[in-house]
Design brief:
Blueprint: H1 6-20, H2 28-41, H3 58-102, E1 134-139, E2 143-149, E3 162-163, E4 173-174, E5 177-179, E6 188-189, H4 191-194, E7 204-206, H5 208-214, H6 218-241, E8 256-257, E9 271-276, H7 282-294, E10 297-298, E11 304-307, H8 308-318, E12 331-337, E13 342-347, E14 353-359, H9 363-377, H10 407-424, E15 429-439, E16 446-454, H11 455-476, H12 491-506, E17 513-519, H13 526-540, H14 542-545, E18 553-555, H15 560-574
Parallel strand pairs: 1-9, 8-10, 9-11, 12-17, 17-18
Antiparallel strand pairs: 1-2, 2-3, 2-4, 5-6, 5-7, 12-13, 13-14, 15-16
Length: about 575
């Protein structure tokens, strides 16, 4: 291409600008006149080509563009809202089907399921939605027990519940949670937490059930409850159904899910059935317990809650331990001797709790009595004898727990005494040996505890606690014993007065009862069994107590006495409740 001179390029540039600004001619005369004018301004002729298109200014075209964009936006918005309407219609159709099938309304949160004492969730049968069956959770004052029942909807066979074992092979887990001072420390549950009951290593020990009953710190109580249930239930379901389990009790993800298609690593299509104590402030306890459980379920509200005495009656009926129902004798009096308390509840033939009361006496009272006896009689603790014994403390209105300045020694005393009480339930004597329990301050030599303990010694300590501490506490508090009896001085007299008080409030007699059912871990202790038998004989005669006129006094044997509640809960939850 030949090079153009600077003048030529400048001329072409000027012509281009003039050309771009040329007007639109309507006829040939105007165009000729305009071209002549251009020839006079430049030294060389300029040829202008006739335009073949029509141009419009920017001010004129912008309104058309805006109208087009608005039209397109309106069409897109209309189609979007139309699709949203279709999606909402499909959503509500699915929601109605879900509510009809489960009885749960996710839009109303965890309170969608109606709660009552006899059937605290809903009238819908959720059991068919859980392919993994049901898992009953018995969070007691001392131990946590679990029972699983496989789903029977696929094979239509009667499936009996099985009590789950923990990682150490035990059929129960200590209901204790140790929480450190800093957030960086891991939470410890179960037997590892029990090992720090007295030597707390700078942290604190939480009893989840007691914390929920006190209602002092709901957030802490809820966290402790979730930690121990996640750990124990996750491990149990891992053994039964397989999967990753929960390991350290991480409660960030739901453990129980309703939709089997949403089961992921660490979650199970299993329905939780939770037991709760039936006492005067059960609504407060249930609110805190339900909040903790709902954080472990998806959606919230799939868990079911059943009162402990109802579960006990359900389990006893399953094993045919109760006499047949009679029109004049249909109610069952359930006496549940737990770890820290004893409850007396009257359950009607329709599985409704008519009345319930409790007092602070349980299996742990025997352990406390033995520890107190050892502290007073071991020469290594003579300087602290005044601090031992059955006394009150600041943690509860009445406590039988002794105190000792040496937390490590007190921990070892409780561990040895727990084993001794279990042994004395089957024998009349046992040996207690604790080497290197303490140090002699004068000789600087270790002291070893070696005791031969008789069952009668422990029973004497417990009877002393009942007459000197427990009965005055009951008479001065809200719990009223029967005015028809004198103040009790023995455990059997206490049972007689408490049972009569319940019967008086419900206008019944022992002969209007279908049965008197003794359950709980403390029910395995011989003094508890003989005391109840004596109390029954006082109220209804020897024939009633000895079951010569029918099986009216039912005292379960072995492990079934403390596991009947959790087994009954698994059965209750699988029957469409």
């Amino acid at each position: 291409m030949p090079c153009l001179s600077i003048a030529a390029r400048r001329l072409r540039g000027n012509a281009s600008s003039i050309y771009r600004s040329a007007p639109l001619f309507t006829d040939d005369d105007d165009r000729t006149h305009y071209c002549t004018t251009l020839n006079n301004n430049f030294s060389s002729p300029v040829f202008i080509k006739k335009r073949e298109y029509h141009s419009t200014s920017r001010n004129e075209i912008l309104p058309f563009i805006a109208v087009g964009l608005l039209g397109a936006t309106a069409v897109y918005t209309y189609r979007t809202f139309e699709q949203m309407d279709k999606d909402w219609d499909e959503y509500y159709d699915d929601l109605e089907k879900y509510k009809y099938a489960t009885g749960i309304d996710p839009e109303k949160g965890s309170n969608a399921a109606a709660d009552t004492k006899s059937n605290p969730t809903s009238s819908h049968d959720l059991s068919s939605h859980f392919t993994g069956g049901t898992l009953a959770i018995d969070l007691g004052t001392s131990t946590l027990k679990l029972s699983h029942r496989q789903s029977s909807h696929n094979n239509n066979k009667k499936v009996n519940p099985t009590v789950s074992v923990d990682r150490e092979g035990y059929r129960s887990t200590p209901a204790l949670v140790w929480i450190g001072e800093s957030n960086d420390e891991d939470t410890i549950v179960g037997r590892l937490a029990q090992a720090r009951s007295f030597d707390k290593k700078g942290g604190c020990i939480i009893h989840p059930r007691l914390a929920m009953e006190k209602n002092d710190n709901n957030e802490l109580a809820s966290k402790a409850t979730r930690d121990i249930i996640y750990n124990a239930a996750g491990n149990a379901l891992d053994q039964i159904l397989g999967g990753a389990g929960r390991g350290g009790g991480n409660s960030n993800e739901p453990l129980f899910v309703l939709d089997s298609t949403m089961v992921t690593k660490g979650s199970y299509n299993v329905r939780p059935i939770c037991l709760y104590p039936n006492h005067h402030d059960e609504n407060q306890y249930l609110a805190c317990y339900r909040d903790a459980i709902n954080k472990m379920t998806s959606p919230a509200g799939i868990a079911s809650f059943v009162a402990e005495p109802i579960a006990a009656v359900t389990g006893a009926e399953h094993y045919n331990l109760l006499p047949p129902k009679d029109a004049n004798a249909s109610s069952v009096l359930v006496i549940d001797v737990g770890g820290l308390s004893t409850s007396i509840s009257l359950v009607s033939g329709d599985k409704e709790v008519l009345h319930s009361s409790s007092f602070p006496f349980g299996g742990d009272t025997f352990i406390d009595a033995l520890v107190s006896h050892l502290i007073r009689n071991f020469d290594g603790f003579q300087h602290e004898a005044a601090h031992g014994g059955l006394s009150r403390d600041g943690n509860s209105p009445l406590s039988s727990k002794p105190t000792l300045s040496d937390a490590s020694a007190l921990q070892r005393l409780y561990e040895a005494s727990t084993h001794a009480i279990h042994e004395l339930s089957n024998k009349t004597r046992c040996d207690i040996n604790i080497p290197y329990l303490t140090m002699d301050l004068e000789t600087r030599q270790p002291k070893h505890l070696e005791f031969g303990m008789a069952r009668q010694v422990v029973e004497s300590e417990v009877q002393s606690f009942v007459s000197n501490s427990l009965v005055p506490h009951l008479e001065s508090g809200d719990i009223t014993l029967s005015p028809s009896f004198p103040p009790p001085t023995t455990l059997s007299a206490l049972f007689s007065s408490a049972i009569m008080s319940t019967l008086e409030k419900t206008a019944l007699t022992p002969f209007n009862l279908r049965a008197i059912l003794l359950v709980g871990g403390g029910a395995r202790i011989p003094l508890v069994r003989t005391s109840l038998k004596t109390a029954t004989a006082v109220l209804a005669g020897d024939a009633y107590a000895n079951n010569t006129d029918g099986k009216r006094l039912v005292m379960l044997e072995g492990e079934l006495s403390e596991e009947i509640n959790v087994i009954g809960a698994a059965l209750w939850g699988s029957e469409g409740n």
